[in-house]
Design a protein that fits this description.
two-stranded antiparallel ribbon, elongated, 6% strand
Length: 67
Amino acid sequence: MSVRTHSGTGTTATGADIRLPWWVLALPVAAFTALLLLMTGPGEAHATGGDPKVGRFLEQVRQTLPL
């Protein structure tokens, strides 16, 4: 009885044959979607208090980003 061994680097004649798990693409897509939803959230939301410096900083960041 012969034993099969894999030799080589796992490439085929057409290039690399790499299979990625589903979550490798799903996690970045989910993170991008969540951040996009946070950026485009409702404009009627009001702060419930807190440090006004944080609000000014976030407003400066929002004005700086080219949207």
